[in-house]
Design goal:
The structure is a single chain. With 385 residues, this protein is an alpha/beta fold. It has 13 helices and 17 strands. β7 and β8 form a beta hairpin. The longest helix has 21 residues. The chain is globular, with a radius of gyration of 22 Å.
Length: 385
């Protein structure tokens, strides 16, 4: 593949000097290199002018429905809070932490929901965005400043500076952007895919040297083989994100009491890695899907379907109660999206045409041929709930 961008040249030079690097390390540089990485450069990445869409860009209805799910969780917490006889219950802050808020549309729509539908919760709401990218923080602030009242509820933080909370943790299309290892079955063992340079970028296989990666892959494959009733095929690939597992584990130290909502595209391992597939790694460039990982380096997104089996296993090990995985359609319908669309139309006094456009958003969010089944919702509850 041509070495045709500033970041491609930098990575190629590093490889020539120090040797081949894992695909995981290549992906981290391609996405997060300061100033040149896909998620750190100032250009638009999401929406019509970018490379892909998220559910929150279909329209506000997704965010309003997620907000209703959050509201119901807050209701449960409020109803279970102890009340001393003769005293009014304490009105504590209601905290939401969102990881990787993208352009800020989901945060805006959640705040808008509470502004119109629950003034008490809106007044108490504290919304913390965990975002490392300075360009994304700037975009988020711009979107949220469209409504003057919203910014006073919002703060930005790094993951390292988060305090322990009672409340909600939200991650919408966050996990799929965490760097991952690519592994392939050879004749006798599993090997990891590394990135090297000859005249152009190329791939080569090497024995897995990380004990943790080897153990993780062995566990995933053993579980898959037990469910499939056959051996993992030679040359079949898989992706594994140690970073995603570590992130799940870290949430147990952040969330004292509350709920985690993870929404992303992916599936359980048995569905992801069907016989004959190369794996799920992919590149997005100007809304075109490809496996050309080494083109447009720093200018295209790299991603893979989320392995929800691995996330659920890590969550249980961290002490969370894991609810059954649901499709996005099931999640949105169970949280009354068909009522939410009407609530929003009434609250904003939408005209007939605007109300019809809003209702059409439901189809894009729940139909199987759109986002309804490819996207999933994983809900984790703290054990002390």
């Amino acid at each position: 593949m041509p070495i045709d961008t500033p970041l491609a040249k930098l990575i190629a030079e590093q490889i020539r000097e120090s040797g081949a690097i894992s695909f995981r390390d290549f992906m981290e540089l391609a996405l997060y290199h300061p100033g040149l990485g896909y998620y750190t450069r100032p250009q638009a990445r999401i929406g019509t002018k970018g490379d892909f869409y998220t559910a929150s860009q279909v329209g506000p209805l997704f965010g309003w429905t997620v907000a209703h799910a959050i509201e119901k969780t807050f209701d449960e917490s409020e109803s279970s809070a102890p009340v001393l006889k003769g005293r009014k219950p304490a009105r504590s802050a209601l905290t939401v932490i969102e990881f990787g808020a993208g352009e800020g549309f989901l945060a805006r729509d959640i705040l808008e929901y509470f502004q119109y539908q629950n003034a008490d919760y809106f007044e108490r709401l504290r919304y913390i965005i965990v975002e490392e990218s300075g360009s994304f923080r700037k975009r988020q602030r711009g979107v949220l400043s469209e409504e003057a009242k919203f910014l006073k509820h919002v703060a930005w933080s790094s993951a390292e500076n988060l305090e322990q909370i009672d409340g909600i943790i939200l991650a919408n299309e966050f996990v799929d952007a965490l760097p991952f290892h690519r592994v392939v079955r050879a004749e006798e063992t599993f090997q990891e895919i590394f990135v090297d340079v000859t005249e152009d970028f190329c791939e080569r296989r090497t024995d897995i040297t990380s004990p943790r990666l080897a153990e993780s892959v062995a566990g995933l494959v053993a579980d898959w083989e037990e469910k499939a009733g056959e051996s993992w095929p030679v040359n079949q690939q898989l992706e594994f994100s140690i970073g995603a597992v570590d992130w799940i584990s870290s949430l147990a130290g952040i969330l004292n009491k509350g709920t985690v909502f993870i929404l992303d595209y992916g599936a359980n391992a048995a569905e992801l890695y069907r016989i004959g597939t190369r794996g799920t790694a992919k590149a997005f460039y100007r809304h075109q899907l490809s496996e050309n990982f080494y083109e447009h380096i720093g200018e295209q997104d790299l991603t893979a379907d989320v392995n929800f089996t691995a996330l659920a296993s890590a969550a249980r090990a961290a002490g969370f109660h894991v609810e059954p995985l649901r499709t996005q359609a099931e999640f949105l319908l169970s949280n009354e999206i068909e009522k939410v669309v009407q609530w929003r139309a009434e609250a904003l006094k939408l005209d007939d045409e605007s109300a019809r456009r809003s209702r059409r958003q439901i189809l894009n969010l729940i139909l199987p041929e759109a986002m309804g089944t490819r996207f999933k919702a994983l809900v984790l509850r703290s054990r002390v709930d």
